[in-house]
Specification:
The protein has 221 residues and is of the alpha+beta class. The chain is built from nine helices and nine strands.
Length: 221
Amino acid sequence: MLAMRPATPEDQPRLTLMIQARSDWMKDKQLPNWRSWGKHVHELAGNCTRHSSEMWVLTEDGDRILGCTTVLRTAAPWTWTASEAAETAYYLNGTVTDPAVRHRKLGTLIADWAVDHAAREGISRVRRDCSSAALAAYYQQQNFQLIRKVATLGGHTTYAFERKAERVPALAGWLITGESSAATSRSLRNALSGAARSHSAEARRFFSNSLRRPAEAPAII
């Protein structure tokens, strides 16, 4: 059965293989941003050591890693307004799934888990952004609402999405989340809150590197 759990440093080799496979698949398909992915495989995989309280992995049969995502509490400053950033929200970043099992729609499963997890934690919404029109359409298929498009002087466009946090009962038939452990839940929430307070600069750098664009002043389009 599938399970979502916090990543550990021991996951790094398997995460590297999975993310590299996704990068190679994107290159074969000539999808946008494959060059950026190829350059940042080890950085993304390394989030299990730098963001151990924020990175989650999707596993099967206990050890095979089929996907990952990083759940941040800090908004990308070029995408979200100050008032929006003050709201309770989780920000998904660096979501990757194994292309060998893409037919199983695990990206959608991770998105549903994030929405359910946020609701369990008392968080009001889940947000994410991207710089690809194709990926933006995919996120809308996952019931994320397009809030705005933001352009920078460098010619990049960022699509900002939001989805209301809510329980997803159907997950119980597909996914073990470990949410029944109140201690684990409280520990994660405290860790995320601490990370948001003490590592906001690092989170902003992480967003910037993963999107690979200059930090010019954005304009809403």
